[in-house]
Amino acid sequence: xxxxxxxxxxxxxxxxxxxxxxxxxxxxxxxxxxxxxxxxxxxxxxxxxxxxxxxxxxxxxxxxxxxxxxxxxxxxxxxxxxxxxxxxxxxxxxxxxxxxxxxxxxxxxxxxxxxxxxxxxxxxxxxxxxxxxxxxx
Length: 137
What we know:
- About 55% of the residues lie in helices and about 10% in strands.
- The protein has six helices and two strands, in the order H-H-H-H-H-E-E-H.
- The chain starts with a helix and ends in a 12-residue tail after the last helix.
- The protein has about 140 residues and is mostly helical.
- Strands 1-2 form a two-stranded antiparallel sheet.
- It has two domains: about 1-30; about 45-135, no CATH class.
- It comes from Candolleomyces aberdarensis.
- This is Reverse transcriptase domain-containing protein.
């Protein structure tokens, strides 16, 4: 296959994919006006570390207790700031040459992610999101 033929082929494939997906999105947007129905089609991006600890672990128990009590432990809110200097700068006498990074409590971040996923799932499952909140343009 020549380079020119390959370019034509790739352009045709790209156009066919775009047409298919646009038609599918249009169909969902016009027939039932529920963009959430696209979620199964798109597939959720999964956070592997969160998924790895999600089942049969102490983090589930902690997340459940936080929800039940309505309390978020103070140590989950704590953070540590680290200042990193940018490389190859002529002078390190100005603040612009440093990059501050905030490190959050990892178990707290994982539990927040699990709670967020659970709330999002329940909002969709129990139809708590108004269709007008998510509009396809």
